[in-house]
Amino acid sequence: MKYTNLFDTRIQKTSIEDHSEIMSVFITAFRKEPDLEIQLINYYKGMPLSFNARISRIENGTLELKVYPQQAVAISDDHYTFIRSKLFKHDIVAKAFDVDIRQKTVSLRDLSYVEICAERRNHIRLRVNPPIDALYTTSQGTVRGEIIELSTAGAIMAVDYTVDIGTFEGGKLLFKLPESDHKTFCHIKVPARIITVMDISMPLHFIFSIAGDKTAEKNIAKYLFNRQIEIIRMLKDGCDIG
Fold it and tell me: Which of 48, 102, 146, 197 has the fewest Cβ atoms surrounding its Cβ within 10 A?
């Protein structure tokens, strides 16, 4: 999923004016407090990651930061970060154009006010790698695709052909989860409902709510726990490589 699906914009004036206002506030605060810190938030492969960062320089509409190595790895992968600071009533999203994991530095620009929708989720939804073949079946028909994100309460399935979801009601989502040995699989079949479809280009992203029984929920939770360990290992490896 694109990182732009993690937030809703909260434009106060215009995008350009908001950016100028944000930078002006940072410049004023930085002059008063050279060791000014802000909070950064990323969703690295779906896993929330947040550390403080210190502003090192502000120049030509660019915010330069000293960051924790884990945050640098996440920003390098996604090319964005969210900023949270008591200086602003809204959170901020910024594009990253220069990330040095070894030096633990990040340069940000194109800052704008947002609300982080991902924070409203009750469950962590992780990116699946590799994608998992899935089948959504209803009395109106069947949709084939690949699950690319998964939680115990929902899933995102990528579909590479046009589907008229107006005729679809609730159905079943079927897929196989790999065990920790990646050789054996656990079969999952859960009641599912399409909440919405995102993206106007292929592949389409079907967002489902799911409500499995205790066994299905336990098996999904087990898979997500193992996946989270993999993601944490990727962060560590990224820091070591950097």
Answer: 102
Count, residues in the chain: 242
Q: pLDDT tens, 119-162? A: 888 889 999 999 999 999 988 889 999 999 999 999 999 999 88
Q: In angstroms, rounded to a whole number, what is the distance separating the alpha carbons of residues 68 and 240?
A: 13
The string of DSSP codes covering 191-228 is EEEEEEEE-SSSSEEEEEEE---HHHHHHHHHHHHHHH
- Using CA atoms, how far apart are residues 120 and 114, in angstroms rounded to an integer? 14
Tokens, residue 234? 């990727």
Contact of 124 with 48, CB cutoff 8 Å: yes
Burial class (CB in 10 A: 0-12, 13-18, 19+), 50: middle
Domains 3-120 and 126-234 share a fold: yes
Homologous superfamily of 3-120 in CATH?
Answer: Trypsin-like serine proteases (2.40.10.10)
The tokens for 1 are: 């999923």
Q: Report yes or no: 81 and 65 within 8 Å, Cβ to Cβ.
A: no
For the entire predicted model, the pTM comes to 0.90
CB 238 within 8 A of CB 67: no
Element (H, E) at 234: helix 214-241
Encoded amino acid at 174, one letter: L
The Cα angle at residue 214 between residues 211 and 215, in degrees rounded to 5: 110
Both tokens of residue 144?
A: 């084939």
Domain boundaries, the chain: 3-120, 126-234
- Report how far residue 115's alpha carbon sits from residue 58's, in angstroms, rounded to the nearest whole number: 24
The answer to whether the bond into 34 is cis (omega within 30° of 0) is: no
CA 103 to chain centre: 25
